[in-house]
Each structure stands twice: as structure tokens, then as C-alpha cells.
Known about the structure:
This protein is 44% helix and 12% strand. The chain is of the alpha+beta class. A hairpin with a 5-residue loop joins strand 4 and strand 5. The two termini are 42 Å apart.
Amino acid sequence: MLTxxxxxxxxxxxxxxxxxxxxxxxxxxxxxxxxxSADLLxxxxxxxxxxxxxxxxxxxxxxxxxxxxxxxxxxxxxxxPWGEQRILKAFSGxxxxxxxxxxxxxxxxxxxxxxxxxxxxxxxxEAMKQELIALNQLPQRQEYxxxxxxxxxxxxxxxxxxxxxxxxxxxxxxxxxxxxxxxTLLIALEKLNQESRLEGIECRQLKRQRDxxxxxxxxxxxxxxxxxxxxxxxxxxxxxxxxxxxxAAYTLVNFxxxxxxIQELMPTxxxxxxxxxxxxxxxxHCAAANNLKPLAMAEFWWGPPSGDKVPGEFYGACxxxxxxxxxxxxxxxxxxxxVSGPKAYPAFTSSANSKSLSKASSKKSVNxxxxxxxxxxxxxxxxxxxxxxxxxxxxNNHGGTGILPVTDRSWGAPDAQPLLPxxxxxxxxxxxxxxxxxxxxxxxxSLLGRARCPSHKSQKICWNExxxxxxxxxxxxxxx
Length: 480
């Protein structure tokens, strides 16, 4: 069962220190080109998502088990089909040797289809690994290395002594040439040459002795090295074959409801190991598969440093594994100019009890749907079950989240009554009142989607009471 965390599980980020909404200016964009339209699609990492991620860091810091291995972690801020915001969290690869951990987003589906092949291949890989270890620790290998080092030292000592003797012989030859003549000189020079030949014989004998002792050991070591080379190549081929089958079985879903295997989405013959196991693909796939609308995402490193990865630092999508998947995963809805630029945000006025849209901004935002710099599942699709929503005392997040809430409420909660139709039933009043009534209801729906109504009742109760008390434009004349 999928776990959806309320915002307060990781941060109290609804209101900043000055009482305003958390700044939603993106510090990074997850982006890619749609495979069909080639449009650039984007999902932001905002200040709010970073604050939520820091809350997750505090959760990880409280448990030493998360410090044993360094890996990427990520959060995805999502909107439920009825407008409530929740958090998904994920880890890359395996967590303490497991791919499925309670409270975390599950791995991309498809592994079960290759489970038998995977188990058989992993057993073969393990057997090869153990054989490699045994071959690398052969007693003959260590004996050969020790003897080789000993003979090399003996040769070095011998060569040093022979060089010294040769230098003395050269001096004697020069002196004999100056002081001796005739047969006496020839006898002296021959004696020196004989000493040189004897030294050469001594060096060759030591080398023959070395070869006689080391050669059998060397053959054993060379055979072991060849076997290790074959095993390593075999392990590489087995791993590549298993990865190819897993990538063909792993199926990603986007917000258009389309599914593709990782093998179809990645460039041919260039799929890195671990593709699809990173946080971003797991989070986006999970959101699409469960009809959740992504608002912002953040990924960070936790655990021992590795290469350029520093604990607590935020990082974007990796270029080789994740970036090629982003275009497909984000496919669904066009970009939202509201997130892309601050000028597109409607103005908010804050009070002690609530925040409401200004009249000028509300007119502009009537019937404006949230497109989020992300993709979104079509509203005709219904929300599938299987989600576990953690209980929380804040029924509606009424602080500024830095992300403009959805005003398209056509996704109904499973247990909620349908909201007001887009066009209310006409009443026999003049056109100016009817026009005002349409604008009034649209504005009320926008306020309700933001957080709470002015009387701070729940959305469902407030909306039903509002409809019951205002059955016509005339009855609603003094509302708000």
C-alpha cells in the first residue's frame, strides 16, 4: 500500500516567518522534451520542496541505519484528486538490501516478470564471484610472488657486485697496459677476462635456478589469471543480459496514461546499470500510476560522501540514467505559466484567520486550471484506490504553499458529493445579476480550492451549506 505523508510530517512550511507564503521560485527544473510533440516539459524544485526535503533529512539523521551507505533520496509534492497536498518519498536503488520498504515509494513494476531469471542469474553471478575470490587468493599466487621478490633481490645484489668487479678489472687492464708487455700482458689480460666470464656464468646460473623454481608456479598463476579473465567477461555478459531483460520488463507510466519500457525510452545499446532505480523516475511513475498531480520535486544525497556527492546537498536528474526518461515521464499537460513566472501569480491578501484572493486577481483566475510546469492525468480519469493517507489534524492546508492550487475540481474525492457544475442553472433574473452570480460562484470555488471558506468549515460542509443558502442570485447578493 502506498504511503502519502501530510506536509506537517516533514515541515511546517505553510507560513513563513513574516506571515507570507513560502517562496515558490524554482531553484532547478526537471525537464525533458515530449516524445510526441517535442515540447519542453518542466517540473520545478522550489523552496518549499527543499524545505520538505530538509525535514526528511532530519528524519534520516535520527536513524543511524541511513548513514551506512550513501545514496540519493527524494520527495515529490503532489496534489490528491480532491485538492489536498501530500508528499511521496523515495530512495535510489536498494535501502539496506531491500527494494520494497514500508513508507517509501515502491520500485518500478516489472521485476516480478523476470524474477526467476533474475534469481538464476544472481546465483550464477555469486558463484562466479566466489570462484574469482578463490582464484585471487591461490596459495601458489602468494608463493610465486614471494619467491619472485626474493630472486629479484638476489639478482640486484649480484649485479651490484659484478659492476664493482668490472670497474676494478677495467682499472687493472689500464694499469697492466702501462706496466706490462709481451706474454706477461697477455696472461694478465686473459686472467681478467676469465673473471668476467665466471661472473656471467654465476648470473646465468642464478637465473636458471630462479626459472626452475618459479616456472611451475607461474604456469598455475597464469592459468588462474586466464580463468579469472573468462569469469569476469562472463559476469559482464550475464549482467548485461539480465539488465536488458529487466529494462524490457520495467514499464513506466506517464500522465497521459501511456506506458513504455525503459528499453524503448533509452538510446540503443547504451542503457547504464541502475536505470529506472533513481528517485525521480520512481516518484513520477508512482504519481502517474496513482492519479496524483506533481507540484514540485527535490532530490538530495545522504550518507557517506561519494565522488562529488555531499550529504545534504541537492542534485538534479542524472544525465545518463534519468534525463533521457524525463520527457516521457512528464508528458501529459502543457506548461503552466503560473509556475514559470512570478507575474502570473494572482495577488493574495493575508489576515489573522485566512488568505483570500483579491477581487482583481480572482476575476483573472476564474476557470483557470492548474497546469503546473508539469504533466497531469486527464480529468476524465478517476482516482484509483490503494493509497494510505496518514491522518492529520490540518484537514486543509490553508497556508501559502508556493504552488498555486488547482482550480479544476473535476477530479472528485471518492466519498465526496459532486461539486457545482461549471455553469449554474439559469434563473429568471436580469442578465447583470446572472453574470454576477456566475462570477461569484467561480470565485467561491477558487477560494474553496485554495484552503478554507471564510467561516473556516471543511470544504464539503461549507460548499453544501453555501449552495443550500444561495439557490439563486438574489439570495446570494450579500455573500462575501
